[in-house]
From TrEMBL:
GO terms for cellular component: cytoplasm. This is Serotonin N-acetyltransferase. The lineage of its organism: Eukaryota, Metazoa, Chordata, Craniata, Vertebrata. Its EC number is 2.3.1.87. It is found in: Cytoplasm.
Amino acid sequence: MSALSALPFLKPVHLRSPRGSPGGQRRHTLPASEFRCLSPGDAGSVFEIEREAFISVSGDCPLHLDEIRHFLNLCPELSLGWFEEGRLVAFIIGSLWDQERLSQEALTLHKPQGTAVHIHVLAVHRTFRQQGKGSILMWRYLQYLRCLPFARRALLMCEDFLVPFYQKCGFEALGPCEVTVGELAFVEMQHSVRGHAFMRRNSGC
């Protein structure tokens, strides 16, 4: 069994309604949900969701299609997709970084010896927004990072209006980010994934 397949946070989760009919027949079956690491073959679906989510707001995407393929080839284990009935509905893509704070290079580089996970993008398909899926996916991703022995911190940069969302996910603001994209400025945020030995002993990691 591979290390990834042993992680409880990536096992398929099947959501079904209770059996309520007299004969034990299921009246309704909710879509099966699955959380798994992404592969380069998922890049097209990832980009379609990301493009729709970001271009209307900021005019650009955090990752272009070739960059998505780049990271999903280099470090697919630092990504997480949420699938319902085989359809991608939300995702996170990350890579490793080896410095205390993010710099412009962090947008395109993966540092295999790093201990900070740089979260490049979290996006939810437009049909599934306003349902709390972004928060749920981030929670599962952070639990998953706690199972990775090399991960010590999660870093991300976001615009001001997203700071409250990430604070609710447990991130703290570090201040203005050195990275800029065009005229956009960002706040850098951090979440510690250290000090969870008890959780690791009891989570199958």
